[in-house]
Amino acid sequence: MTIRSGLLILLAVAAATAVYALTASVNVPATRIGQQQFAIDAAVLEPAACSAITITNPTVVTNGSGTAGNDLILADGAGMTLNGNGGQDCMIGGAGIDTFKGNGSHAGDVCIGAGGTDINSANKCQNFTQ
Fold first, then answer.
1. Which of 32, 45, 48, 122 has the greatest number of C-beta atoms within 10 Å?
2. Nearest to 86 by CA among 98, 104, 63
């Protein structure tokens, strides 16, 4: 009788463990109730310092240039060279030392550094901030 009781208790514990193991692995996915989606355009990305510029070309560059239009140029890494290449441009540096090549004071380029000691090449960015 003692062996049977021990065997029954062992079976009961094993069954309870198996049920726990099965229920512990059930994953319920999170819902997306309440999440909203909306389009992001250049006006959403443009910082307040660039609000006077009507952006026509949002661009991400890696040591590259913008267009002849009014560009929003965002650096994507450290040590970038940002060249407006015409128009009124809003250039935003990334981490590290960025070199801003604006179009001269007549163009009204806005150059915003985001880290490091950035360079306003030949002082061609009309509005330059570190």
1. 45
2. 104
In 28-69, beta strands by DSSP E: 57-61
Name the token pair of 5.
């009781």
Alpha helical stretches, state H, 28-119: 42-45
For 96: left if phi > 0, alpha if psi spans -120 to 50, otherwise beta; the answer is left
Q: With contact defined as beta carbons under 8 Å apart, do 99 and 81 qualify?
A: yes
- Give the pLDDT of the chain (130 residues) as one tens digit per residue: 555 554 445 445 455 454 444 455 667 777 777 777 777 766 677 788 888 888 887 776 666 788 888 888 888 777 888 888 888 888 988 888 889 988 876 678 999 988 778 999 988 888 888 7
Q: CB under 8 Å to 114, separation ≥6 — which residues?
A: 75, 92, 93, 94, 95, 98
d(CA 37, CA 57): 22
Q: Would you state the torsion angle of the CA atoms of residues 116, 111, 45, 114, taken in this order, to the nearest 10 degrees?
A: 10
pTM of the model: 0.64
